[in-house]
Amino acid sequence: MAAATKRLLLAAAVALTLAAAGVSARRRPVRLLLYMHDIVGGPGQTSARLVRGPGPENPSMHPGNFFGDTVAVDDLLTSGPALGSEPLGRAQGTYMTGSMTDPVFVVSVTLMIKAGPYNGSTLVVAGRDDTSEPVRELAVVGGTGRLRRAAGHVLWSTAKVESPLHAVLELDVRASVPVPREARPVARASVSSE
């Protein structure tokens, strides 16, 4: 009986491995390296506080940051960390102070790509940004255009702080998208009024 159970488990493991290989073989990897410029004030401001959180003030962040603060962003995405680098798109969405004690933001942004092979496509990114960690992992939860049905993650890190008002984030996107199916003829039904 034990030998039969072992064979059954081995067969199930092989079947699952083959099924997983088939799924991944039908997906194409996507790698992007983008730099997001979050400018919270002054000339070139790209983000604005929508809601002052009810508190308390978060002791692990700069003074004036309260639990529940919500910020809208329309941040420039570039090919390098310098603000003058080639523009690649925009990061549009929100982030909120998500902890009363830790330097954590809850992020929900759409990366709108305006250059290169993914021009006109978007990636949707969501997750927890614990700024005390050098590298954070956020989820790629979808996309549009050539990035439709994207899945994966973004390695999200602070590349540099230009000033107290301008942070540059490095977004190392590691995702995949389904390989498009060959165009198939579609049977059309007709409705007759006879």
UniProtKB/TrEMBL annotation:
Q: Which superkingdom heads the taxonomic lineage of this protein's source?
A: Eukaryota
Under Gene3D superfamilies, the record lists:
Allene oxide cyclase-like
Protein's job: Dirigent proteins impart stereoselectivity on the phenoxy radical-coupling reaction, yielding optically active lignans from two molecules of coniferyl alcohol in the biosynthesis of lignans, flavonolignans, and alkaloids and thus plays a central role in plant secondary metabolism.
The reply to whether 4Fe-4S figures as a keyword in the UniProt entry is no
Q: Where does the signal sequence lie? A: 1-25
The similarity annotation says: Belongs to the plant dirigent protein family.
Give the source lineage, highest ranks first.
Eukaryota, Viridiplantae, Streptophyta, Embryophyta, Tracheophyta
| Annotated protein name in UniProt | Dirigent protein
